[in-house]
Amino acid sequence: MTRIKLSNRFIGDQAPCFLVAEIGINHNGSLDLAKALIDVAQKAGCDAVKFQKRTVEVVYTPEELAKPRESPFGTTNGDLKRGLEFGAKEFAAIDAHCKARGIPWFASCWDEGSVDFIDGFGVPCYKIASASMTDDALLRYTRAKAGDRPIFMATGMSTQAQVDHALAVIGNQNLVLMHTCSVYPSAYNELNLSVITTFRNRYQIPIGYSGHESGLATSVAAVALGACVVERHITLDRAMWGSDQAASVGPSGLNQLVRDIRLVETAMGSPEKRLMDREIPILQKLRRKGA
Known about the structure:
Layout: E1 3-6, E2 9-12, E3 18-24, H1 31-44, E4 48-53, H2 56-59, H3 62-66, E5 68-71, E6 74-76, H4 77-84, H5 88-101, E7 105-109, H6 112-119, E8 126-128, H7 136-146, E9 151-154, H8 160-170, E10 175-180, H9 195-203, E11 207-211, H10 217-224, E12 229-233, H11 251-268, H12 280-286
Parallel strand pairs: 3-4, 3-12, 4-7, 8-9, 9-10, 10-11, 11-12
Antiparallel strand pairs: 1-2, 5-6
């Protein structure tokens, strides 16, 4: 299994799991809330925070934007999408806040214009969202823009054939393939964590896990199965308004998740079976003589 470099660290086998706190649209259009979520992620020990960026009129059809949808921003789906979209002023403030806190940030870009916009901040990596995995043009554009920088690509709502095709389009150089289920929140029988092993064997590249379940245990289990990246949506309160809040992890849950992943990494240890030094006096005490 290969390793790839992201800024001053590695991602892959024999490297600590890279923990991404997905803020996404859980900022609810508030820069202050976005900054508070960055602080939660940094204090918990996450390695990066992630946002989303769309050019609303490019990603959605006029018919989709005109659909009725009640929200704090208005009465249509377009009102909601535009209300949740940060622009240059907000992302400049996010960039400054992350630098002040010493935590990298990046974004999933849903169209070529958004790739250009986010690239202006010199982000260390890119993300292809599950919804964009079949967008060949966007995959090629992101690859060209990223250069040697890593790309994380999510695989939710996709077939094995579609994943194979996406890999053929984007290539496997500096790529982390993220297993995920795109139901928010996902039921446990929808997670199929065994796909992590399938992907590791099939592609021989770093494999990650983007979890949308309501609990923590399965995200920890993903690390034991070989996930070298774990991404979870975060929130200040799962009862807050917003479509992604219920599938997110609150501050105490995030602290527990980071702690448990680090403990599991320590416990995985070496594949070599050997006698541990602290077992020797126990052996001498309990093992039958001559056995």
